[in-house]
Amino acid sequence: MESKRGGFSSKLGFVAAAAGSAVGLGNIWQFPYVTGENGGAAFLLVYALWIFLIGLPIMVGEIAIGRNTQSNPFGAFKKLGGKAWALVGLFGIICGVMILSFYNVVSGWAFGYFIQIVSGDIFEESNFSSYFSNYVANYEDNLMYSIVFMVITAFIVYKGIKKGIEGTSKILMPTLFLILIAIIIYGLTLPNAIDGVKFYLLPDFSLINGATIYSALGQAFFSLSLGMGALITYGSYIGKNDNIVNSATLVTITDSMVAFLAGLMIFPLVFSQGQSPSEGPGLVFVALLGVFKTMPLIIAKIVGGGFFLLLCFAALTSTISLLEVPVSFLIDEKKWSRIKAVSVMAVIIFIIGLPSMLGFGAVDLFTEFVYYEGEYKTFMDVVQDIFFVISLPLGGLLLSIFIAWQWKVKSLSNEVSNGYSKYSGSLLEKYFNFMIVYICPLVLGMMFVLTILQKFFA
Ligand code: PHE
């Protein structure tokens, strides 16, 4: 893997980086609140189905295309399919840019909470729900912390694949796991915690409807970092002898575990404090603070500070993968230097993120941006709806069509067989091929139409 483009030093390096990309705010901030808004256990079940039936085959496809072409998403589709297909890659890169624009804002919130917990008097508050609303409406803090976050992301991406991305992921992922487990154990000892467990684990099937199903699909793609080329990009740095199926499975399991644990952490806390699970984007910020407050101050600072710091790190390994996508495009296709690509993109993405930041009360226009689905949506809601709920599964749909009709499953099998010689002829191969050629195009195509209808014409 000693090419000019750089590469991961080992299989573990790739898995750590790809899992780092997958595990992030999507798992710890978003998954619990989306699950809470969509009925709990029933949502969890649909989510798990999407992850393993559709997510895993698409992930294998993305990594294989990346490794085969050694390119960014645009270059990859262009090499294998010509100019028209390259537009699919370009669209993915644009989604990455838009996702990072709001992701960086939420990362800034997490960073701000970390600072406030360790240095401030946040625990003197009594109502953390209104505290959160005021906090996100205050753009001065948010501006500062999200600038810091973007600068750190840019610095790591500038450092390049091996030193920056891989090293950061390897240490931080396991630590995050441990702190989650610790808070879960503590949470389960609290009064009424069991109601949270029930809400989270005992499905009420009458709660499953069209909206649950497509929210779960978008959430699955987002959480696994699929549908916009992040894993094509990371796949382009993986060694020829690595086993793609193994790596993809490990990444998928890790990501699902962290999301699952985040839910298991949050819902008992929410119920033990008598809060509502459908609190929305503030859920993690509100529920956790209430619990930390019950601890002796110094412990609260250590556990609370530790939690938000790790949340920042989890977010960071995702923001670097998001920024790496447009950066690798500019380096490969426009022959920009890494430093130029990183600085220009970081500034542009930060600016695109400003309306998202200002849409929580600071500026009315962005707070009540558009009206649909029976309510006013914030600017951030709209970006999320367009660039991940709709676009990521659409990206997966186009990818599966691309593999089935253009690249052909034969080529996919050949690529996957490198590093996994028993793959060709195996049952697993037949399964993945069947999913990619028939199930993904059919199901994702149907879901795309339904999502658009539900969202904008219902
Ligand atoms: N998967 C990341 C998360 O769960 C977000 C992400 C989406 C990262 C798409 C890269 C690409 O937080």
Automatic annotation (TrEMBL):
TM regions (residue ranges): 12-29, 41-65, 85-106, 143-161, 173-194, 214-237, 249-271, 283-300, 307-331, 343-366, 386-407, 431-453
Membrane topology classification: Multi-pass membrane protein
Assigned keywords, A-Z: Membrane, Transmembrane, Transmembrane helix, Transport
Chief place where the protein resides: membrane
Pfam families assigned to the protein according to its UniProt record, in alphabetical order: SNF (PF00209)
Record localization: Membrane
GO cellular component: membrane
PANTHER family according to UniProt: TRANSPORTER
Name listed for the protein in its UniProt record: Sodium-dependent transporter
